[in-house]
Every structure is written in C-alpha cells, then in structure tokens.
C-alpha cells in the first residue's frame, strides 16, 4: 500500500529536480538498451533470435520503467517498491552479464553498454530512495507524513529512516517533539475509528 493510500487522500507531488533527474536517467537507460539491440543485431557471430528478442524486451521494459518513474513520482509520496525490487534484482544479473562479456573477445562493446546499464539502474535505485517531502503540493499531508511514509523500499527494508532519531538521541535527550510522526495507520485517531467500527459491529 502506498503512502498516499495510508494518508487517506490523493496527494500530488510537483515536478522538480528529483523528477527531472529520474527522467533523464531513465531516458539514458532506454537509449543504451536500444543501442544493445543494434549491437546484437549487427554482431553476426553472437546474434541469435533469442539474444535480439531479449534485448528488445529489455528496451520495452526500460520504456515502462521510464513511464512508471513519471507516474509514480507525481502521484505517490512513497517511492515505488516495484521499481526498486525489479532494478535491484536485474542489477545482479547485469553484473554477471558484464563480467561474461568482458571475458569474451569481440564483445567489448556489449560489455560497455551492459556496464552503463548497470550504473544507470543503480542511479535510479538511489534516486528512488530520495524523499519527496519538499515537493508535496498538499500542505496538510506534508504535516501528517512520517519518515516511514516517504521512505523508499531499501530505506524501509533496513530501517534506515530511524537513524536520524538515533543520532539525535546520541547527542541529546529526546523529547516528544523530537520524535517523527507515526505512520498514519498507527495514530490514535485512525486506531480509534477502526476500533469504533469493530465495536459497533459486535454490539448490534
């Protein structure tokens, strides 16, 4: 469930440097994936029906990622878990592919493009972990957001978002005002509404 759904209202995120950086990186990814198609097509020694088809599929996937980056950035506070997981998995395969290409004579160009794809995917993963808090157009939702709501997949997976609280606690005594906002589903007003609903159902 996205942070938008947890906050309980549609929240738009205005365009900014983060979005344009994502789109430029995604566009470069599409371009290099398309270059890979050409390299496989003109390489008679290593061209097969499967290699060209796989390269075409990768290009189509890169186009889909580019579109998802735009839609997800504008309509979701929380970065896309799907994009982060997919790119993280494919990066592992790209590492193996790049190593194999570098070790085979005549495939230096493909090795170079695969390495570039690997780097660009890593950049997108990093950008997906960046917070969009400053770009949220709805000021009410901005105030209601907790750090977990705006964190990316890896940020939440390793609980990195609590580090700022730990650092503050190491330096000084933490007060209630220093604590970040709770997840919307864990706040007392949300829990009260849920409890009231269950209470009313069981007392009919």
From TrEMBL:
Residues 16-105 form the ABC transporter TMD0 domain. Keywords: Membrane, Transmembrane, Transmembrane helix. InterPro entries: TMD0_ABC. The chain crosses the membrane at residues 23-45, 52-71, 107-127. It is a multi-pass membrane protein. The keyword Transmembrane helix applies. GO terms for cellular component: membrane. It is found in: Membrane. Pfam families: TMD0_ABC. It comes from the Eukaryota. This is ABC transporter TMD0 domain-containing protein.
């Amino acid at each position: 469930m996205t942070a938008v759904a947890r906050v309980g209202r549609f929240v738009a995120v205005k365009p900014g440097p983060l979005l344009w950086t994502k789109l430029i990186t995604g566009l470069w990814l599409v371009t290099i994936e398309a270059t890979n198609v050409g390299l496989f097509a003109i390489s008679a020694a290593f061209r097969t029906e499967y290699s060209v088809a796989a390269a075409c599929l990768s290009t189509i996937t890169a186009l889909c990622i580019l579109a998802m980056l735009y839609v997800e950035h504008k309509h979701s506070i929380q970065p896309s878990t799907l994009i982060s997981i997919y790119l993280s998995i494919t990066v592992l395969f790209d590492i193996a592919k790049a190593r194999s290409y570098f070790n085979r004579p005549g495939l230096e160009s493909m090795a170079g493009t695969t390495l570039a794809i690997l780097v660009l995917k890593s950049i997108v993963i990093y950008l997906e972990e960046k917070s969009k808090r400053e770009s949220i157009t709805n000021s009410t939702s901005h105030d209601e957001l907790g750090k977990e709501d705006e964190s990316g997949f890896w940020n939440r997976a390793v609980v990195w978002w609590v580090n700022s609280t730990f650092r503050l606690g190491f330096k000084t005594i933490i007060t209630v005002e220093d604590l970040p906002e709770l997840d919307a589903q864990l706040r007392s007003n949300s829990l009260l509404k849920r409890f009231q609903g269950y209470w009313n159902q069981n007392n009919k």
